[in-house]
Amino acid sequence: MAKHRIALLSVGHAGVDFYQGAVPAMVPFLVAERGYGYVAASGIVLALTLLSSVVQPAFGAAADRWRMPWVVPVAMTTAGLGVAVSGVTGDYLPTWLAVALTGLGVAAYHPESARLARQASEGSHVGMSWFSLGGTLGFALAPVLVTPLLAAGGLAASPYLVIPGVLGALLTVSAMRGGAAGPGAGGPAGDARDDWRAFLRLGAVMVFRSIAYVGLSAFAALHAGGGTAGAVALFLLFAGGAAGTVLGGKLATRFGRVRVLRWAYALAVPAVLAAVLMPLAGIFFAGLALYVPFSLHVTLGQDYLPNRPGTASGVTLGLAVSVGGLASPLVGALAEATTLGGALLVLPVFAALAWLVSWPLAEPAIRVSR
Fold it and tell me: What is the DSSP code string of 160-181?
């Protein structure tokens, strides 16, 4: 592996996925300063994911046809600008559109960056897990940085949040100068066939996982009581995800990706339930269990679609992560009709569905190098 390039790409990944954690961390401040209800607050999370979900496959298909390395730093800067503007817009619609711009940047970033990471890691499970870890650490750092910043300066301090995206873009450009992949690079060569049936089943697994995870991340801070307790809950969720990302790559090298994926989702069911019933005690383990399969989704998807690594990367790193946000307003509406804790009890069901749907999956005929 080109370890220095993986390291730089991982830090850049942290810079862009910081914003996927920053938006949930801003939700308690939007509720406090602007009086948003559960539905309005979950609509902000929806703004992050809706546009991203729609355009993500298009960016992936484009990455399979053309080499577009310039998209990566532009997308990272765009993601930062959206969050920076969202806090200084007074009305709901401009705020929603600014967060949607962040979602667009996140969508544009993932397919091309994952293709570059696949090339730099030479198909290694561990190498891809380190790249995925960067994104998870970005999630984890978001509440740690966003909460004290906004607690001190209010939403008016949000323009400072552009900094991680700009710094990440500069580091990513440095990594890209060390080598670049052409169209389709990083995938197996030859007459390998795309297994769309297996890929679509994997996609269903990721959607169910995404609903469980995004539901937790959207409401964890409020469920824990907001303020410092809310920031701690988000940090524990994202820190568990970081640990799970690294653990997943190491376990897959020893036991195989599909087997580890099934184990993780079996453990995710009680872990997510514990996170709902005991937010600060159980939420770390929910993040751990839900993120063990995360980097495995990426390499499995790329191997199921060896001729379309950009499309596979866009879906596994982007669409399948963000699509859970489409369900967050439904969770918010259920919370307003009942209680937040009661609404979150639906999330373990989706973890169980991910486990059930994963059973027919098998290792791709073309295996990645280890």
Answer: GGGHHHHHHHHHHHHHHTT---
